[in-house]
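[Archive record]
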Amino acid sequence: IEEETTAAIGEALWALTEGRRVVKRRYVVADGGRRWEIDEFTDRLLHLAEVELAAADEVVELPAWLVPYVVRDVTDEDQYTNLVLS
């Protein structure tokens, strides 16, 4: 769930995440009307590519620049959610 909050609440919640933070660098690449977000995790050897879809059954063709780097689709693998990665 994502929702706006105040800076004070954000700071209080941030303190509770000590030792369980996901550390990553995000790159945004526009391609063919899509916005790809590539996350480079700096605390482990992991890169994830993500694209937002209009519908869950929408078919996505990987752009040619991304194909050589994709090992597999992890969409339905819970172990790659931020909650589990933290």
